[in-house]
Design a protein that fits this description.
- The chain has 11 helices and 16 strands.
- By secondary structure, the protein is of the alpha+beta class.
- The protein has a domain of 244 residues: Type I PLP-dependent aspartate aminotransferase-like (Major domain) (Aspartate Aminotransferase, domain 2, 3-Layer(aba) Sandwich).
- The strands form 5 sheets. The chain has a 4-stranded mixed β-sheet.
- The longest helix has 32 residues.
- The radius of gyration is 21 Å and the shape is globular.
- The site of pyridoxal-5'-phosphate (PLP) has 15 residues, from helix 4 and helix 5.
- Pyridoxal-5'-phosphate (PLP) binds next to helix 4 and helix 5.
């Protein structure tokens, strides 16, 4: 093993980014038509819910991802909330998800009045383990009236929500097959994986619906924004309807036919999104180059670089390394952050947070193993290349 110190890692990140200044984890880059499109919104006054950019952004996103329909929302959390509701998740249902995720996944489940049930992740993909999912569904649930019910609680399994962690695709084809077999609707949390493909198909297009995020820290940003992806026309229409306060279209009357949400993406944010999406291929190319450099640097050291999973093209949203143990992780975090190179641990597991600590779980050994060891390292695209 070629031992490398954490100081070597700091120096390497500095060499990649070519700076002695503070290096953040992920920052947005505005290098194309962003200013022109946003200025167009201001000049025409169409900054809010009406304007051409929302439709254009949705069309571009549907073409890029291959999803038949794309519905833009104010953020990824809102997109997840709507997708779960439209997948049929109801009060008192349970939703299978992974404990290694950003809190938004579980928050959206909770907004539906449902409870998360946590199944383990895999060490190589960092995403939901098909084996853990299948074990849980086979042993802990039974089928009745076309649904799948938890034997212990009697509650319906309303959906399964795997997540493509840090942009690396999980084994989504196996997960989709298992969900089909057990009659559980699949909603993919692809918030982190715009530009990531599994077996040539874009993440977020394997289930009934998938969800993207365009938060400021993501591969492309709209300031704040999200998207529901689906191949189902009826679902896309419902998504558009309930995200626009369920207003019945009319020239001047204000009639709403159910309780809806004010979740539509404003035109000014969509304008930013159109310009950012034009830049996506350039961002992805740069991020792949950076990942390759990291992979070479960390090879053979005690810091194991998280590689692109099999059968996948990753967007390398946030690069990650796996340290020897929790002590090594904490030391790495201290040394790098003290040296002005931003790094961060993986999220605290969801089942360890006060709100979700009483939720049912499978054995979560691999999630715990990863929580103790994973750190993210600077991953912004370099646009001067
Ligand atoms: C896994 C995951 N799910 C959902 C979200 C929610 O997206 P947003 O911040 O746009 O609400 C994010 C990111 O922020 C995320 O990383």
């Amino acid at each position: 093993m070629i031992e490398k110190s954490y100081k070597d890692a700091v120096d390497f990140v500095r060499a990649v980014y070519g700076t002695t200044e503070f290096i953040s984890l992920h920052e947005p880059k505005f290098v194309g038509n962003e200013k022109a499109y946003v200025a167009d919104c201001i000049d025409t006054t169409f900054v809010s819910s009406v304007g051409k950019y929302v439709d254009r952004f949705e069309k571009m996103m549907s073409e890029y991802t291959g999803a038949k329909y794309a519905v833009a929302t104010v953020n990824g959390t809102a997109a997840l909330h709507v997708a779960l509701r439209l997948a049929g998740v109801k009060n008192d249902d349970e939703v299978l998800t992974q404990p290694l995720s950003f809190v938004a996944t579980c928050n959206a489940i909770s907004y539906c009045g449902a409870r998360p049930v946590f199944v383990d992740v895999e060490r190589d993909t960092l995403g939901m383990s098909p084996k853990s999912l299948k074990d849980f569904l086979s042993k802990e649930t039974s089928r009745k009236n076309g649904g799948c019910f938890n034997k212990a609680t009697g509650r319906k399994i309303g959906a399964a929500v795997p997540m493509h962690t840090f942009g690396h695709p999980c084994r989504i084809d196996e997960i989709a097959k298992i969900c089909d077999e057990f009659g559980v609707p699949l909603v993919e949390d692809a918030a982190e994986s715009l530009g990531s493909f599994f077996k040539g198909r874009h993440t977020g297009t394997f289930g009934r619906m998938g969800v993207l995020s365009f938060n400021g820290n993501k591969t492309i940003t709209t300031g704040g924004g999200g998207m529901v992806l689906t191949d189902d026309e009826a679902l896309s229409k419902r998504a558009k309807h309930i995200t626009t306060t369920a207003k019945v279209p009319h020239q001047y009357e204000f009639v709403h036919d159910e309780i809806g949400y004010n979740y539509r993406l404003p035109n000014i944010n969509a304008a930013l999104g159109c310009a950012q999406l034009e830049n996506l291929p350039r961002f992805l190319e740069s991020k792949r180059k950076i990942a390759r450099k990291y992979e070479e640097f960390f090879a053979g050291s005690s810091m194991a670089f998280v590689k692109e999973p099999p059968n996948s093209a990753s967007n390398f949203w946030l690069n990650a390394v796996v340290l020897k143990d929790r002590g090594a992780r904490d030391q790495f975090l201290r040394e790098t952050n003290n040296a002005g190179v931003m790094t961060r641990p993986a999220w605290r597991l969801m089942n360890e947070l006060a709100m979700f600590k009483d939720c049912q779980t499978t054995d979560l050994s691999d999630a715990k193993w990863l929580e103790d060891r994973v750190v993210n390292i600077p991953s912004s695209a370099i646009v001067s290349w």
